[in-house]
Predict the 3D structure of the following.
Amino acid sequence: MLFLQAAADAAHGAPAAAAQAGHATEAASHGAAFDPSMPWLILALPLLGFVINGLMALVAARRALPHVPPVGDPHWDTHGHDHAPAMQEVTYAFADSAAAGHGHGHDAHTPSEQEGMDAGTRPNPADHAHDTHHAHDAHGHDAHGHDAHDDHGHAHGPKPWTHTLPSIIAPLAIFGAFVVAVMNWLAMRGAGEFDVIPGWSWMPAGELQVDFALLLDPLSMLMTLIITGVGTLIHLFSIGYMKEDPGYPRYMAYLNLFVFFMLILVLGSSYPVMFVGWEGVGLCSYLLIGFWFKEKANADAGKKAFIVNRIGDFGFLIAMFLLFAHTRTLDFAGTAQAVAGLEYGGAVVTAIALFFFLGAAGKSAQMPLYVWLPDAMAGPTPVSALIHAATMVTAGVYLVVRSSVIFTMAPTASLVVALVGALTAFFAATIGLKQWDIKKVLAYSTVSQLGFMFAAVGLGAYTAGVFHLMTHAFFKACLFLGSGAVIHAMHGAFHATHNPADAQDMRNMGGLRKYLPVTFATMAIATLAIAGVPPFAGFFSKDEIIGAAWLGAEGHSAFSQASLFGISGTALMGFIGGTLTLAALMTAFYMGRMMIYTFFGGFRGNETERGHLHEGNWTLTLPLIVLAVLSTFGGFLNVEKAVFDHVPVIGPLFNWVAAHTVGDAALHHWLHPVLTGSEDVVRNNLPEMAEPAHAAWPIFLAIVIGLGGLALAWVLTSKRNARIRTADQEPAYNGGLEKALYNKWYVDELYDRVVVRPLGAFSRGQWAFDRALDGTVDFFGRMSQTLGLWFGRAQTGLVNTYAFVLIVGVLLVLGSFVAF
Amino acid sequence: MEAIPLSWSLGLSALLFCIGVAGVVVRRNAIVLFMCIELMLNAVNLAFVSLSPYAGVRGQVFVFFVIAVAASEAAVGLAIIIAVFRHSESVDIKNFSLLRW
C-alpha cells in the first residue's frame, strides 16, 4: 500500500526542482529534465509478486503436510478418516506434461509427493546436484521404495491453484515492471537532468541523513531494463523448467523477491539503500542456491555463497563508514561531489575504493572470493542464469561504475581492480578448459567474464565495462538457459531408461544438435557472441575492453601514470592486455569445446534414450530465441565510429548499421551524464590527458582470437569427441595438468587448509577455553547445590527436631554460663 | 501455717517444665504438643509466683502477661491446627512439613 501510495504521489506530484549537482553541466547542454512516471511501480510489482507467490507457497506447504492421525486421539478411526495418508489426495500429479513433453505416459517429473511437497526434497530431475545425484533417486522412485510409475495411473489430476497461479503472476509482475521501466526509458531519452525521486526519510540521525529515495539516471535505467527484461525471459523459462517441482510457488516467490531487491540495488540513490538491495540479493541467492536444501551439498553451497559474501559485505560497510567519515554524506550525488574535493590518489580515497572493491569482489566473484560462484550452480538452472550470470553478480561492476568518481580519484586502487579482474579472467578461464559439467563450464566462464568487466572498469573504461555487462547478460543468460534445456532433455532421456547417469556431464551428451535444434542454434549464437566473433554482441564489448588495456599500456588510460608496488601503470596494463587476450582465447576455446562435446558427433547414450530427446515447449524456447537475437544485435549499441573507421570491409558496414539504427557509440553517449564526474576528476588532476585515443589493431587481434579459439577447439576436441565414452567409463582427466585443471587448481582444498580448518581449529580452541570457564562456574554452582542438599537434610520439617535442637542449644548456652 | 519451702515449688516448676520439653521433643500429635507448650508456660508461671515473696509484686504481674500471651497463642495455634486438619484430616505434625525446602 505504501508503495502504491508513494507511486501515486510520485506520479502526480511534480518532482522537486532540486537539480542534482552532479549533472548540472549536462543539464546545460540537454536542457530538459527527466520526468519519471510511476517509478515506484517498478519496485512495487515484483514485491507484490513475491507477496502473492509467497502466500501461495505457504498454502502449498500447508497442504503438503502429511495427513497423519493426531497423536493420542483414540476416536480417530471412527471419524472415518483414511488411515493411509501416504496414498491420499496429497498425491497429485501433473497430468499436464506438455512442458516436460513426456507424452509417452511416464510423467517423468511426477514425484509421488507423499512426504511433504515443498520441503526441498526433490531436486528438479533436470537439475540435481552433481556430486550427490547417485545418492538421490533421480528417477522418481520415492523413498517408500515402490515404483513411482505405478502411481501414475491414478495420480493424474489437475494441478492445484497454488501451482498454476504463480506461472501467471510471477512473470507478469516482472513484465509489468519491465513495461514501466520502458516507459521511463522513453521519457528519459533526451533528458539531461536526473532528479532523485524522493521517498521517505529513512535514517535521520544527526548528521547522517539517509533517505529511502530512488535515482533514475541512465545507468540505473540501463540496469533496470536488463534486470526486468532478462528477468522476464528467465521467469518465462522457469515456468517450463520448474513447474513440475513441488516447491514451484516458493521458487517463484524467491525469484520475484530477488528481482525486487536487485531493483533496489540499482535504483537506490545512496549507498545505504543500495546496501539494502545488496544484502537482499545475497539472501535470495542463498535461498535459491539451497532451493533443494534436503541435499546437503546444495545447502552447503548456499551457505558457502552467503559466508563468502559476508567478507565482501564487510568491505562495503567499512567503505561506507570511511566515506561518511570524510564526506559527511552517503548519497551518490553528494559523495561524488565531496570525494572530488579530497586529495587525488590520497590514502583515504584509495582505502575507500579498495574496500568498495572488496565488497564488489565478493558479490561479483573476483579473486580471491570467486569460489562460491561455481558452487552456486547447485541451484536451479534459471537461477544460475538470472542471479549468477546476468544480474546479481554484475552488481559489483555496477558499484564500481556508480562510484566512478571515487575510483578515478584513486588510480592505485583502480589498478588493483584491473589487475584482479584480469587475473580472475585468466585463472577462471583455465579452469573452464577442463570441466565436464556443462554448468561448471558456464560458471567459470561467468567468473572469467566478470573479470573482463572489472578489468575494464579498473582501466577507467567504465562504458566498456557496462557494455560488457549488458552483452554478457544477454549471451550468458542464453547459454545458461540453453544448458537448462539440454539438461532437461538429457534428464528426460535418462529417466525413461532408468539410467542413473549425470544429466549435466558433457561426456554423456554428444550429437544433441539433431534433437534440440532450437537450443543448438541459440546456444551457437551465444557462443559466437561470447567468443568474440563479429558481428555478435560479445565481439564489440570484449574488443573494447582489450583495446582499453592496450591503449592504457600506451599511456592513454587515466591510470597509466599511476603505479602499483613500484610497477608502472603502463607496464601493468601491458600485462593486463596480454592476460585478457589469452583469457579471450581460452574463452573461445572452452566455449567451442563445450559446444562440440554437447552438440556435435554422435549421441553417447543408447537408442531408447535417443528417442526421448526432445525440445521443451515454448516457454523454454522463446526466451532462448529472444536472448539469441539480443546476443546477435546487442553489440551494435556501442559501435565506436572512430575505431571502426580504420577497419576495412566490416568497419564501414558496422558503422553504417549503427548509424542507421541507434547511432554512433549510443551506449557511450547514453551513459555519459553518469560519468561526467569522473571525467572532471581526470580533467582537473591530469590536465595533460589527451582526448581518448582509439586503436584499431586490437579489433583484428580480437577477431583472430575469437575465430582462432573456436578453430582450435574444433581441431583439438572434435576427434576426441568422436571417441570418448560416457562419464562412467571415460576418465575425467589424463595426466597432471588436466587433473589440476579439473580439480580447479585445488583452490577449494587450499582454502580448506588455509582458512577453514585453521579457523575451525581456532574456534575449537576457543570452545575449549569457553568450556574451561564454564566448567569453573559450573563447579561452584554444583558445589553449592551439593552442599545445600547435604545440609538440607538437617531440615526435617518436624517441629520436634527443631525443638530438640533449640533445647540443646539453650542447654549449651546455659551450661557455658555455669562452667565459666 | 508453715510456708511451703521455696525449693519445693521451684522443683515442681522445673519438673513441669521438663515434662513439657520432653513432650514437645517426643510427641507427634499437634494438640499434645500444644498442651506441652502450655505446660512449660505454666511451669514458668509457677516459678514467677513462688519467687514473688522475694522479688516483689512484679513477678505476679508478669504471670498475667504470660497468661494473656498463652491465651492468644492458643487461639492462633488451634486455628492453625484446625486449618491443617481440614486439609489433611490429621493432626500429626509429620504432615506439617510441606514448606521444607
